[in-house]
Amino acid sequence: MIRNIFGTFGTRLLNAICNFVTLWFATHYLGAEAWGIGGIVLIDVSLLLIGVEFLAGSGLIYFTPRKSYRTLFKISYIWTTMVVALYALIMYLCTLLPEGFSLRFAKFFGENAEFIPQGYHGMVLLMVFIYSLHNFNLATLLGKERIATNNILFIIQFMTQMLSMLVYIFVFDIHNADAFVYSLLTGYIVGYVSGLTQIWPYLKESKGESVFNTAKEMFKFGSIIQLTNMVSTLNKRLSFLIIKSFWGDAQVGVYSAASQVAESPKVIGQSIAMVQFSKISNLNDNDLAGKITVQLLKTATVITAISILIICIIPTSVYSWIFTRDFADMRAVMIALAPGIVFLSAHTVFCHFFSGVNMPKYNLYAALVGFAVTMPALYLLIPPFGMVGAGVSVSITNFAIIVYQWIIFKKTNKVSARELLVTKEDMKSLIAAIKSLVFNR
Q1: CA 144, 270, 374, 260 torsion: positive or negative?
Q2: Highest mean pLDDT (candidates 125-134, 207-216, 427-436)
Q3: Which of the residues 89, 171, 230, 432 has an alpha carbon 20 to 30 A from that of 236?
């Protein structure tokens, strides 16, 4: 398992580096406003993906070892097509309204608070469709515990995104949000086609299962996970909307850039949690799953805390020099976000434990706790403090979430807070695992 964790961490670290390079080129050749629009498009895609992932999301990791692959394939493709078609119908009906094609929330968020930026509706739908098919490949490969293959496909995706954005900027001379949005779509397409070559042999698997009954099981499991994701994504989307309403697209761009840099250490928790989920989903021993989770939780939070501290002590002048003066305020936002990033790492590990042992409802309850904290925090902190206020609200929200998750985890596994302390034995085990990985390849 340690080899898979390091392999996944290496992949996520490379992704973070590519994101940094992408951000640098975007800040220098696209500008804050274009980056803000691109960030909103990406969040909108994440929100619309939730509808697809009720059946064709991360729940596939749990069901792949338990169900026929061909059945999962049929269900996922049919459901994806239906949901995207429904989205298209809703968007078309919106064009018939007096307000026009854009979905607006002017009553609550001001005249500039579009749900989907003007002109990007068709692109958002296409991105949702292609990414959903790509995600099916990634999720089911994790369910097969083919973590290395999953990592390779992910590398193909984000490397294609970065390189294609450079092509759109320097070859096609695109210097607006289109360059970023087109690069995302290009990465999804190349990643999806590459993944087909890996999943094709599994389509021969058939156990004569009922598609309808399997879909019911998947929907019951997936609906809780995706309701959780919806609430969590809405938390982030609301901060973008409120910042845009009070401060404009440029400030959204700066906040988005600061969030991207500050969240780079979350690859640690994500890498650990991905392997954790894949492992736990193939176990039938919840006690063992709990012990694994405690060890991984300590590792994730400590390394994340050290990483975010390094990011925060970098002087403002460095960020201004790297990303231009328009992004000079990034460091203040990142300091406000820092505690929340550490809490997010713990939250990620807890989430994958509850999903892996078939108790995803607690993740939903945690997200609702976070939403209840987010709403007043955003409205109280963003108007007077702007982007920094949004960062503080994220930290407060994530703290509330992990407090709830720890209470439930403690009751479920009968562990004490003392077990969260990092001991000499923990360090020795980690060092031994690293030595084994390095010298016994």
Answers
A1: negative
A2: 125-134
A3: 89
Distance separating alpha carbons of residues 352 and 296, to the nearest angstrom: 11
Residues 310, 157: Cα–Cα separation, whole Å: 28
Closest CA to 296 of 419, 424, 140, 439: 419
Tens-place pLDDT, residues 7-54: 777 887 888 889 889 888 988 898 878 888 888 898 889 888 888 887
- Interior CA angle at 10 toward 180 and 30, to 5°? 15
Query: What digits encode the pLDDT tens for the residues 346-400?
Result: 988 898 888 878 788 888 888 889 888 888 888 888 888 888 888 898 899 899 9
| pTM: predicted TM-score of the whole model, two decimal places | 0.66
Q: How far apart are CA 24 and CA 12, in angstroms?
A: 18
Secondary structure (DSSP) of 2-65: HHHHHHHHHHHHHHHHHHHHHHHHHHHHT-HHHHHHHHHHHHHHHHHHHHHHHHHSTHHHHHTT
Q: Which of 268, 248, 322 is CA-nearest to residue 25?
A: 322
- Show the tokens assigned to 323: 């990303």
Structure token digits, residue 237: 């989307």
Contact 132/52 with Cβ under 8 angstroms? yes
- Cβ contacts of 360 within 8 Å, gap of 6 or more: 221, 224, 225, 228, 354
Contact between 312 and 366 (Cβ < 8 Å): no
Residue 238 token pair: 């609301």
72-108 burial: b if 16+ Cβ within 10 Å, else e: bbebbeebbeebbeebeeebeebeeeeeeebbbeeee
* 35: its two tokens: 């980056």
Find the mean pLDDT for residues 82-97.
Answer: 87
Q: How far apart are CA 37 and CA 31, in angstroms?
A: 10
Q: Is the model's pLDDT at 421 over the cut of 50?
A: yes
Which residues, 6 or more positions from 176, have their beta carbon under 8 angstroms from its beta carbon?
30, 34, 37
Task: Give kind and range of the element (H or E) at residue 378.
Answer: helix 361-413
